[in-house]
């Protein structure tokens, strides 16, 4: 990869790259790059609509008449290394803006302040975005009110297809542009001008390779300040309990972020029924009815909550155009390592890493390290139990103020130990999954999720299960659960919001503004913000909350109330850090919350076991068995029968509630019928049958 080929010259670069197959030639597309257009804004000048709209003075010329714009909106930024050689920057610009007539993507590119700077501003023509919309299978509203998969050739049949800002949201435009940029591939061996040792081989993704070589330092979407300010005002700036503007969040940050905040709000609202029941059960003191009612409600609540969320997410995905999302082959991860090999099926050059090597790494390195961390979790539980017993003895002996403090100290310290171990394991699991060298991002995320879910389940719930099933100490379970809810939520708020916010303020305080162009300074400032780490930790926090509520809240009914207070704050802090603390993430298309739906549903089935057992060990049930002379064997059979019956009830309830509402199924069938009719599949024989 570091030898200069003798037969390839930089001037041939355009002939050696190919854009994605959907970048067709627009109608009336002559033209050449970098033509100044009269009557348009200069770089850094604000248009009447947005401060992101910049002049086309040095933008790539728009060569088709249907894509002419009064101003160009900067959608994304490529930040190059500070000492980038001008010829390398010009080469990259030529690749990105190559017209469709020679197989290029025809992305609109602006060199920033000058051709020797390290900033590239990116945008896209309307034709390119619409063709990418069709390629990826986005559904859009047609003129008859149906959400149909968009077709570029019949775009006039779709509402607002001639008005880019109404037809495609900002998040969709940035997502589509990212997909086009990342899928620019090398078709013939070449090298990077100015860096003769950096060779590009056929089949490699240009931008990903430049990121590996540290020539491209950052690739990030740009904020639209007026839209962002409007969203902040509606979302979290006002101290009220109004519903979140989910559709506006989706339009700005994409479906993936919108689904998280939608689920966070939905889960918080669903907890209110649990909170009301806890206040109702408080009147029963410690009667048997209280435990039975709360346990049964927990079991049904977990099922109904997730089933109705499934229906709700289908409706949201339908109107966002991703319900029947077309899956596509994603490019290799930037971090993927391998040798260039010709694919035996496609005949294309691509990186290859033997699967058996990955299996060996998982079995002989990853698995032992994961078991080591699980052992540390068990050791922490045993130390906590020993210290808890010692604190109880000291309390009963002296009953002084110091002994009272010591009574709660083991729970608090063990909670801190859990959080530290969670953070350390998350970094270790990410490093191990990276070292396993997975080719695609989806595979990487699945392996990482399984590792972290397994550990978090044992670390967060293992001790509670031990107290429940082995010690059978309801009082200790209550104390441990209350400590987890209060201490761990406080730690999470500090880690997720307060520390990044203080880091940002300190960074801004020490930063001096020396730029001469306000817009470029704003672009660089957005790129200097810390990268958003994704929604994994946020979903994991909700997973743990769902477990506390569904598994153990029958012994601590105020769990729901504490979580509601936490989540009302969580919505605002998560929104604040996404809008102001972190760099804007590239939008990601999604049709649901993904694998987390399965994880929450599995907790629902675990809740049947724990709630039945918690009822069986309650003093009221034990007294009931003694009064009516129910033996241990008979009681065990009764509880096993009740557990199996409740699992059957959960399954029946889940199947009774359809995943997709009836009206939505009807809409989808109507769309399918119209699509068949439009494509000619509705032939004369089908017409004969209908008659």
From TrEMBL:
Region (Disordered): 1-41
Keyword Transmembrane: yes
Transmembrane domains' residue ranges: 263-285, 291-309, 362-387, 399-417, 453-471, 542-565, 593-617, 637-657
Membrane topology type: Multi-pass membrane protein
Cellular component annotations (GO), alphabetically ordered: plasma membrane
Tree of life domain: Eukaryota
Family: Belongs to the anoctamin family.
Name used for this protein in its record: Anoctamin
Protein's organism: Pelobates cultripes
